[in-house]
Structure formats: structure tokens, C-alpha cells
Amino acid sequence: MAQRFYSVMVRPGAPPDEAVFLRDGFALGPFVFTLLWALYRKLWFAALLIAAAFAGLMLLGAALRWSPEAVAAAEFVLALLIGFEGHAWRRATLERRGWVEAAVVAAPNLAAAEQRYFATMPGAALA
Fold this sequence. Notes:
127 residues, 4 helices, alpha+beta, 3-stranded antiparallel sheet
């Protein structure tokens, strides 16, 4: 199975179980739900940019008399970009809020990444 990389973001002073694991690469949630995903994750500036980009595409399509298929294709490309960059935006937002990247873990899935990360914590052998 292919290895994926996960950035482990932690808030200084917070318990280890509050760590956030962000997979590098394409993410389905930001691709499919774009604006709703950004709002749910409290990425306010990204949500504003996403809404403006989609509105801009619709206005541009109307002004240039694009076919509905061309507008849909442009919106698909924008959603694809959001899918590839969504976790990077979330990582940057967490860093601005004081979180730090504690580790980068290579694992086939999220459960394995969590297991590998928490196994390296002090006292892990006792648990």
C-alpha cells in the first residue's frame, strides 16, 4: 500500500490527543464541499476567497457568454485546486493561531499515522 505523509499539528500546552493530522495531497472534502468545508473548518478568509472566485467565474461566464458546460468546467478546475490546497490552507491557519508542526509521519492511512505518532510519545511503552 502506498505511503502518505501526514503533518501532525499540536497546540502548545494542549493534551496530545488534541493533535490534528493533515494529509498532504488531494483531499475529497475540500473538493466536494469547497465553501461549506472552509466554513466548517473556520477558514474565514479562504471561504471569502472561494465564494468570490465562484461568483467571479459565474459573472465572467455570463459576461463572455460562455456555455454552461464551460462554466461548469471552470468551476470543476477551481474545486480541484481547492481539493489540492485545502489541507495546506488549514495548516497555515493553524500555524497563525499558534499551533506548531510536531512531526511528519509516513503511513498508509490515518489510523496508522496516529499509531506511529503516539508510539513515539514518552510513556508510550507503558500504555
